Amino acid sequence: MQIVSALFMDNVDFRREYDGGPTKIDITGAYFSTAVSGAFPAHLTPHLLVLLRAEDEAARAGTLVVTFCKEGTDDEVGRHSSPVMIQAPGKFFYQLVRPELTFDEPGTIEARCVITETGSAVTTPLTVLQ
Fold first, then answer.
1. Which domains does the chain have, with CATH numbers?
2. What is the DSSP string of 20-70?
3. Tens digit of pLDDT for each residue in 80-102?
4. Over the stretch 67-83, which tens digit does the pLDDT of each residue have?
5. What is the pTM of this model?
6. What stretch of H or E contains 102?
7. Which residues, in sequence order, are bridge partners of residue 112?
């Protein structure tokens, strides 16, 4: 199993141009930074979309672990772990992760996404501004 991408976003929709046709993914409001209104500490629950792919039959099952750490450190501020099963090889799957993150001050948190069985990994930053 491979991670294709991981992205903070506002909304995702899936559609087909015709019955039985290929699936299109409409992602809206993709972002790598956001501003908080009010004082710190700020509590955020962003949507992280992780797209996955099974390259063959043996790669259909895996475990997605997302660790949220302060940028440049191993200081963990959140964690998500979930089993993933992709229905058909060569097909794509998505996992939505919605962490509860607390920012004591402006700064950046990295979402470190890993498939434990294969080591496939992607890091996506989220910077919070005031």
1. 2-13+27-124 (2.60.40.10)
2. T--EEEEEES-BSEEE-SSPSSEEE--EEEEEEE--SGGGSEEEEEEEEEE
3. 999 999 987 668 899 999 999 99
4. 999 999 999 999 999 99
5. 0.91
6. strand 101-103
7. 67, 123
